[in-house]
Amino acid sequence: MIEARHTLTGKWLADFCSGYYMNRYFRQINIMSPAEAGDYPLLMLANHFSWWDGFIQYRLNSQIFGRKLYVMMLEEQLRKHIIMNRCGCFSIRKSSRSMIDSMKYASGLMTDPKNMVLIFPQGEIGSLYHDRIRFQSGVQYLMKLINIEYRIIYNINLIDYGSFKKPMLNIYQRTVDPATIISLPELESSFNLFYQECLKSQCSALW
To answer: Residue 7: what pLDDT?
Structure first.
């Protein structure tokens, strides 16, 4: 696996893409109901719908949580865009023995309360128009490896154009105590309940 790095070059790239570049591309960026995280390490679970994913969470973390962000990324994609490794991305190769190494690496990062680990539990980019987000089993394996108190952050990102040339991005999040989650189906249902709430809020959002 490819372990994460944080370099000045990576920070410059992440700051540029999550700041100036996003501000140019989106008409408006709204962080909806900022979540409380306390002094715990954070595991962020987010929907995966675009190239912007990762930079959106980088912006959210910079403005709200202030943690050192680590992002789990498919190894074939990380090798194609290896500069992302300098922004804190580390690799996972699905359906291989090295996947266990990636999960152990992620659980090790979760021992530091200054860290946030971002994973996309659906495992690949999907349409915003799915009515349900299906979880891969790896997220449950990771949660079993974490042996320290932490918090889960649900993150849903949704866009709308309306009558404008540029889209509006709404960033939703919610804090969850993992002690209340018993199984992967329960975690998936809890996440999707929040997802449906976000969709309803998005339909009533001001344009």
So the answer is: 95
